[in-house]
TrEMBL record:
Classification via CDD domains: Rieske_RO_Alpha_N
EC number in record: 1.14.13.-
TM ranges: none
InterPro entries documented for this protein: Rieske_2Fe-2S, Rieske_2Fe-2S_sf, Ring_hydroxy_dOase_asu_C_dom, Rng_hydr_dOase-A
Domain Rieske, first and last residues per copy: 42-151
Keywords: 2Fe-2S, Dioxygenase, Iron, Iron-sulfur, Metal-binding, Oxidoreductase
Coiled-coil features, chain-numbered ranges: none
Protein name: Aromatic ring-hydroxylating dioxygenase subunit alpha
Gene3D superfamilies for the chain: Naphthalene 1,2-dioxygenase Alpha Subunit, Chain A, domain 1, Rieske [2Fe-2S] iron-sulphur domain
Top enzyme category: oxidoreductase
Single Gene Ontology MF annotation: dioxygenase activity
PROSITE patterns (UniProt xref): RIESKE (PS51296)
């Protein structure tokens, strides 16, 4: 058997500057991000189980309202939430006129089928110059990946490309998982502050006592073995502390471990997959957690966490949901406090720009992604 090549250290060989401070609270910068990033990238809008055949679901992407529905054949469709008559909203939190076949405008009763084609103008009587065929709903690009539903407002959406590749979760039974718990938290910080915190572990020793106990390498302020000082290559050992198998309060799996996982995946204890700008997925040996990031304002961000399980795990006698969810909730709360602390400090008139350490290579990559996505608008 051929020996595996040594894993190179990802550490930076210099200390690059961060983004200018205006990137974190300037309304103009935020507006550019909304149009150049959030309106042009794939944004997670929910798990497939949230979209039934008997109602429309209202979602917001980059401030734009979108309706998502499932047709009678089970296919998901998405459209801008605007009637082609005079622009009325087709769906609101209190009005949802959908019978599984026709989308009816609650204002003047124009009706569309589930392909978006205009079927009826209600009580209006079109003249010969009116062409129904060009007055259908405006479609929104939609893709599904491992039971997760993503939308993109762009007319020419980019390739859907998770950072770890489309096959990153192939060994997990994603299509069989259901939502067992959902939690939301609003943070007083810019959305990029959250992603920066996510992309480094220098803060872990001082912020996350429970997490560094579970994942020993985090005690050193790094995220993986190759980031350790003096790394010489070679195989990494188990990621979790001795006796632990999953991210739970007691380290024990919440139910049977998933079939089909490789030995490496089981030893890793967690498999992170990131899809900028809106979500990351953490796959464990017994459950999966999905965290959605939503930019609400220059200094407001909403986090939505969903825990996915096999149905038989949820229904098993003695299943302890709190043992699973309390661990991540504690970590999220700690990260939230750190992010808000970071945001407050940015308002010092003396602070203009940060400086990254070698261990913050993923933040540097994230900054390059943001600047690249903004392009000429930066």
């Amino acid at each position: 058997m051929n020996a595996q090549p040594p894993v190179a250290s990802p550490l930076l060989d210099h200390c690059p500057p961060g983004l200018p401070v205006e990137a974190y609270f300037d309304p103009g910068w935020y507006a550019r991000e909304q149009s150049a990033i959030w309106a042009r990238q794939w944004v997670l809008v929910g798990h497939q189980s949230a979209f039934g055949t008997d109602r429309m679901e209202l979602r917001r992407v980059a401030g734009t309202e979108v309706i998502v529905l499932r047709d009678r054949d089970g296919a998901l469709k998405a459209f801008h939430n605007t009637c082609r008559h005079r622009g009325a909203a087709l769906c609101t939190e209190t009005r949802n006129d959908f019978n599984g076949r026709l989308i009816r405008c609650p204002y003047h009763a124009w009706a569309y089928d589930t392909t978006g084609r205009l079927i009826s103008t209600g009580y209006g009587t079109p003249t010969a110059d009116f062409d129904k065929a060009v007055h259908g709903l405006f479609p929104v690009a939609l893709t599904e990946w491992n039971g997760l539903v993503f939308l993109c407002l762009a007319d020419d959406p980019p390739e859907f490309r998770p950072d770890m590749g489309l096959a990153a979760l192939d060994n997990w039974p994603m299509e069989h998982l259901v939502i067992g718990h959902r939690a939301e938290k609003e943070l007083a910080c810019n959305w990029k502050i959250f992603w920066e915190n996510y992309n480094e572990c220098l803060h872990c020793p001082g912020i996350h006592p429970e997490l560094i106990d579970l994942v020993p390498v985090y005690r050193e302020g790094v995220m993986s073995e190759p980031e350790r000082k003096g790394w010489q290559g070679g195989a990494a050992g188990p990621a979790l502390k001795s006796g632990a198998r999953s991210w739970t309060m007691n380290g024990a799996p919440c139910g049977p471990e998933f079939d089909g996982l490789s030995a490496e995946e089981r030893a890793a204890g967690h498999n992170f997959v990131t899809i900028y700008p809106s979500c990351f997925v953490v796959a464990h040996v017994d459950y999966v957690r999905v965290v959605t990031v939503t930019a609400l304002a220059p200094e407001r961000t909403r986090l939505t966490a969903e825990w996915l399980f096999l149905p038989e795990t949820l229904s098993a006698p003695g299943f302890d949901l709190d043992n699973v969810t309390d661990f991540a909730k504690r970590v999220i709360a700690q990260d939230g406090e750190a992010c808000e602390m970071n945001q407050r400090g940015l308002h010092s008139p003396k602070f203009r720009q940060g400086r990254l350490m070698p261990q913050e290579f993923d933040i540097h990559r994230f900054h390059e992604w943001v600047i690249g996505a903004l392009g000429a608008q930066a």
